[in-house]
Amino acid sequence: MSVTTKASGTTSCASLLVHRRTPALFPLSLPLLSFKIRSTTIPPSSYLPNLVLQPHQSLTLSLRCSSSLSASVSSMDCGGGPSIYPLHRCKTLHFVRHAQGVHNVEGEKNYKVYMSPEYFDAPLTPLGWQQVDNLRKHVRSCGLFERIELVITSPLLRTMQTAVGVFGGEGYTDRIDSVPLMVANAGNSDRPAISSLDCPPIVAVELCREHFGVHPCDGRRSISDYQYLFPAMDFSQIESDEDILWTDSFRETKEELAARGMKFMDWLWTRKEKEIAIVTHSGFLVHTLNAFGNDCHPLIKKEICKRFANCELRSMIIVDKSLSGSDPSTTNYPGKIPPGPDVPSTVADEKNVEPDSGST
Hints:
Order of helices and strands: EEEEHEEEEHHHEHEHHEHHEH
Number of helices: 10
Helix content: 10-25%
Radius of gyration: 25 Å
Strand order of the largest sheet: 3-12-8-11-9-10
Number of strands: 12
Largest sheet: 6 strands, mixed
Distance between the termini: 40 Å
């Protein structure tokens, strides 16, 4: 058995990870695998000479078990099968990177292009709209569209175009009782208007924007301008009409972006919806998701964190392990209605076990 150590900068025969109360994220296509050991079995003098835990911290050992492992460890909750979590403490998240923007075309050849004011709040390219159309077909053919309760989008033109193009209603026709999600030719797209009927609500949220600052393509227009282009989109989560988060003199660091991403993930637990699509950006996805999966198999960590292609969709489950925002279950049933005797046979057996004659 090989065990990696991470505690107070020391290395020993056991790996100690100090886990704060953060949610866990897993690919939807894979079972939830984990190895755990109770902290009560850890010899503190041997493994933890300098470790001081705060009341809100817990201990978890990350183990790699080799085929030669023959010792029986009774205190481990270790069988290599999937983990189980209450359904109401989970959400299904469908992460989508925006389709190809005009800045991506030249920016992939020369990174300095991202500094050009020409690409301010870059819209989608014609190829990007083709990518949107193909993802739209996919989410409908696989049944995902009917399950999504909410769509969250970064309030930049390319992400909002992607969000309404993929998850919006069918072709819009003028009528008194509804406004379109997107007006015709929004962002010089040469696209028809998109209906707001028969589709999930779409909410713009600043927390899931790309890096703040320096790159004009990552700045946004005023919300007033966007409300004209996307009349039925919900902008109520955005406090400032003008973009006060972007400056030309300072670029948000990777660490700051990751911290903002975790704040966004915490905010998701304030929502009642259980199945949510999130349309956002490459940098936001990479640096936010990289904070997850450290207790998983390396291949699962790789699947969570690998860079998204334009208009790629990846489905994952987020698990609330800390009671930070879980709603009561809508499917659990208490049973015993009407009430009656229900003593299990195992309990009856325990009550009728005769005392050991050798005991005192």
